[in-house]
User: What shape does this take?
Amino acid sequence: MPDNNAKLVNSTIIAQLFGVTTRRVQQLAQEGIIKATKEKGVNKYDLLPTIQQYIKHLTERANGRDQKKDTETEGRKLEAEADLKRSKADMAALQLKELEGKMHRSEDVEAVMTDLVYTIRGMLMALPGRLAVDTSNADSAAEASEIIRAEVYKVLEELAAYKYDPEEYARRVRDRQGWGDLIADEDE
Assistant: This one.
């Protein structure tokens, strides 16, 4: 049964009294901090009890009784700190693997493979010059073909002798970290 002494006001009046937005007043009502009454589909607030409820809420917050939210915030903060520490540990583990030569950065692999491709390209580009005189002096096409085949096999044998060089990757890591100069200074 509605209180006949109730002074019902809209959320705009409450917002002005509390120094908040009307949206915040609606949130306070949804959170159960203040009570709203529906009148013709619009929220109305009994002025005196609403002010008292809001003062009680602010007092509890000021006295630390709103610890549930503080505990949740603290829990999220601790979880975020733990995630950050795990991420830093993961990064350190990856850096250690890189320094140990157990893992390589993609840009280092790309650079080493690019060097290899240029080496192969240089070998192939040198073939015509090396073969021109020999094949022109050949007595038959079969002899010229054999000369070309022999030179191609030499290039392939050189490529087959290519081995993974962990020191090349280690040098690239040292250069990227700026350690290359320090090691050179120590050697002198």
Remarks:
- The two ends are 96 Å apart (CA to CA).
- Residues 104-187 form one domain.
- The chain has three domains: 8-65, 67-100, 104-187.
- The beta strands are 8-9, 37-39, 42-46.
